[in-house]
Amino acid sequence: MLDFHHLQTRLNELEKLPSLKNDSSITQALEKSGFTRRDFMKWAGAMTAFLALPASLTPMVAKAAELADRLPVVWLHMAECTGCSESLLRSDTPTIDSLIFDYISLEYHETIMAAAGWQAEENLESAIEKYKNKYILMVEGGIPMGDTEHFLTIGPHGKTGYELSKMASENALAIFAIGTCSSFGGIQAARPNPSNAQPLSKVTSKTVINVPGCPPSEKNIVGNVLHYLLFGELPALDVYNRPKWAYGLRIHDLCERRGHFDAGEFVQSFGDEGAKNGYCLYKVGCKGPYTFNNCSRERFNQHTSWPIQAGHGCIGCSEPNFWDTMGPFEEPMASHKFDTVFGLGADSVSDKIGIGVLTLTGVAIAAHAVIASMKKNEE
Amino acid sequence: MSQRIIVDPITRIEGHLRVEVVVDENNVVKEAYAGSTLWRGIETIVKGRDPRDAGFMTQRICGVCTFSHYKAGIVAVENALGITPPLNALLTRTLMNAALFLHDHIVHFYQLHGLDWADVVSALSADVKKASDEAFKYTPNPYATGADKLLEVQQRLKAFVDKGNLGPFANAYYGHPTYRLTPEQNLIVLSHYLECLRIQRIIAQCMAIFGAKNPHPQSLTVGGVTCVMDLLSPSRMGEYMEKFKEVQDFVNRAYYPDLVMAGKAYANEASVLNDIGVNNLYTFQEFQLGKNEWLFESGIIKNGDISKVYEVEEDKITEEATHSWYKDNEALHPYDGKTNPNYTGLVEGESIDHHGKNVTSKVFDTKGKYSWIKAPRYEGNPMQVGPLANIVVNYAKGNKNVIPVVDEFLKETGLPLNAVFSTLGRTAARCIEAKIVANNALRAFNNLVENLKVDESTCAPYVIDNTKEYKGRYMGHVPRGTLSHWCRIKNGVIENWQAVVPSTWNASPKDANGIGGSYEQCLIGLKIADVKQPLEIIRKIHSYDPCIACAVHVMDTKGNNLSEYKVNVNL
């Protein structure tokens, strides 16, 4: 599957591109900042493992990162809460956020940028013009469209979020929808969606890579950029355009409480003895069996924790329309009927087999849970 | 001849905010308007849902103050159902809240507000040795300001600038005549700016230890908290304690000394003084430290008279929409609010651009409606909320947690007490509040440890009776000021929901009497040095730490389908 020759060719191509910055490679800059080559290679190695690539690719990952300063990034805020930007700021290892700030040329980002007003608008326009078809576009937030398009305007000319994201998309090299809002509409698009907020994919006909999560972990944001640099093409995607490397497994698959699920040991209500013992949260509403993300492997905030570790079930935040399909969040899904919105592509094999499987999976999970629990009670 | 200045987007804030001012021939602001340009409608979306889900949805109002609306959403439902969570749960929430306050306040000072005070590029010409000595003037134990460290920072900045591409730092107001810090002082701030990027990750971890993640923690539930395993793990508790102390150290040795330094440097800068904005101050009790012990108390000060503090009477709160993009204008209590969108758009106009030319732009229809933010009022008057209100009210009430810190700050800067009523004062009060939280939150931690020895409960049981109607609210103080959430539950689901949030108070547009909120009022009389670079406007607005997604909310108590309204797009 991995084509080393293709990778090498891609890296050679990148290397030939003129640098945005005059005198520095990333390694020189790193050294100036007190990072050794060894630190950097360690980081590159970690990223290689994180992307589930073979270790032999580590030197290539390092090389790709060295070339990263040649990619300008434009980040737009639509109808959102800024949680995705905050997630980016929490970058995982001590060095990653300085890598982002120092070596990706962040041309426009409203939460961070120094310029405001007319100067900010000028930054966006000049970035789009100067780096036409060369910048990475990242969009945070849903986009009001149709009759309510003007529910979001930005800048002294009162351009709508729709106009801005469309213009930025048309001229972008690659487009990432960061977070569930720009991927699928998010909270503002939940029933009855009073502002008619839409996902970024409704704004452009170009491929949009969805990086959902509320918010997505910073690793999923950074990892995707690196993936693009390495392969020079979009990562393999599931039917919801989520990169398979990050969203290929269910929360349930690698859950630390999975053993308790299999043993039929469940938290019956928050704060009970089962909760103190770390039992499975399925019966208090965990959506881990229906949710595709790498939280159970990567966790959040430098591996500090994740919802299931903190004793609360997964709410399914990286799934389309989860606000409408997965509530009440503290009750098990088995009591609900699945509809087509939940089904297609939500399972790694379902794009072949269809929605019936998931319904069956749901029933099977419930049945398993009941049987295991009965056995447990008999003991 | 008057001219209009538009600042849109106001960057380095949460959300979408536009400010317009009209200046006279001397560049003095005569009129000011602040409006939000985004509407999302989360309170509408919450309706008809399970009350246990409300906290998760209200949490998504904001990912910056990423605990405030979660807790508020959960507590409002608890209040409605008559639930008192176990002490362990309440103290755990305090510890998470302490992490939020420290995160918000340090990131605000350095990453969001810092560039309004510090001209980073000027740090290039700093004398490293002098800068290192300078740091000792403000604390006996300076943070990350040794000569070697500062040299490294300066070289890093030089390398960055030499690349010729400033990225997010491009096109700012560098060299503006109202900057007051010396190159050496700017270098100190820059070193702390970079350190803060590391420290903010650590304090976010403190929230994540009990909260699963940050942003958007996930361990509160109606009745208590779910992180019982973490509470019963000495290792996890130790992790919180040690990480918290590391951040406390940053607050005391970097943030606070930098504030004293800025306070002295800007003591004579007209654009940051004498702008009380709204001089009615409103704050609410927060930070439960023990069974009956709170860090900050509630209170109201009217017309800047600190000799008398009034009790908060919640039935005196109303919101109206005369100049907001909603249909029903009249002032109503949040339990009875009506808020149907009625967008009338921006209008054609002229403003000065960044080249100083008058150009065609879109401008507010200031005679009509011009913001998605409503106008909350207390007894019909606008109020100022936030750290300034919290610190002044608590000082006036004689709060022993607050008085010594304020007195010490005034002594160290030589500023008079009334200097607090200013842009500088708002920025100072935020740091003072952070210092008080940093130095007291572990009292809650210690009480939690003591309580866990005799009581391991973390959740209170409850039932939701589908035949009963419930009504409840949360009132409290969050990083940007006084927050309240108001809910009604009927037939087992949310019947209505209303949030009256800090930035709504401060960023309020004008009301039926033509009286604006604190953002608007604080800008009147401001002299702008350079109309092409309205740094003073941004500095003042940033001093409130705007959170505009929080401020914009809507509720339709009539159960109408909002999507049916046809919008009059006047563009």
TrEMBL record, chain A:
GO biological process: anaerobic respiration
Main location: other
Domain of life: Bacteria
Segments forming domain NADH:ubiquinone oxidoreductase-like 20kDa subunit: 81-227
Subcellular location: Cell envelope
Protein residues bound to [4Fe-4S] cluster 1: 81, 84, 181, 214
Keyword Iron-sulfur: yes
Positions of the Cytochrome-c3 hydrogenase C-terminal domain: 247-329
Gene3D superfamilies: Cytochrome-c3 hydrogenase, C-terminal domain (4.10.480.10), NADH:ubiquinone oxidoreductase-like, 20kDa subunit (3.40.50.700)
Cofactor: [4Fe-4S] cluster; [3Fe-4S] cluster
GO molecular function, one term: 3 iron, 4 sulfur cluster binding
Keywords: 3Fe-4S, 4Fe-4S, Iron, Iron-sulfur, Metal-binding, Molybdenum, Oxidoreductase, Signal
Residues binding [4Fe-4S] cluster 2: 252, 255, 280, 286
CC annotations in GO: [Ni-Fe] hydrogenase complex; cell envelope; ferredoxin hydrogenase complex; membrane
Similarity field: Belongs to the [NiFe]/[NiFeSe] hydrogenase small subunit family.
Assembly description: Heterodimer of a large and a small subunit.
Protein name: Hydrogenase small subunit
Source organism (scientific name): Campylobacter sp. CCS1377
TrEMBL record, chain B:
PANTHER family, alphabetized: HYDROGENASE-2 LARGE CHAIN, UPTAKE HYDROGENASE LARGE SUBUNIT
Name of this chain's protein: Nickel-dependent hydrogenase large subunit
GO cellular component: cell envelope
Amino-acid positions noted as binding Mg(2+) in the UniProt annotation, renumbered to this chain: 43, 62, 553
Binding site for Fe cation: 65, 550
The organism's place on the tree of life at top rank: Bacteria
Subunit structure: Heterodimer of a large and a small subunit.
Family in the record: Belongs to the [NiFe]/[NiFeSe] hydrogenase large subunit family.
GO molecular function: ferredoxin hydrogenase activity; nickel cation binding
InterPro entries reported for this sequence: Ni-dep_hyd_lsu, Ni-dep_hyd_lsu_Ni_BS, NiFe-Hase_large, NiFe/NiFeSe_hydrgnase_LSU
The protein's required cofactors: Ni(2+); Fe cation
Keywords carried by this UniProt record: Iron, Magnesium, Metal-binding, Nickel, Oxidoreductase
Main location as per UniProt: other
SUPFAM superfamilies named among the record's database cross-references: HydB/Nqo4-like
Species this chain originates from: Campylobacter sp. CCS1377
Binding residues for Ni(2+): 65, 547
Residues annotated as signal peptide: none
Compartments where located: Cell envelope
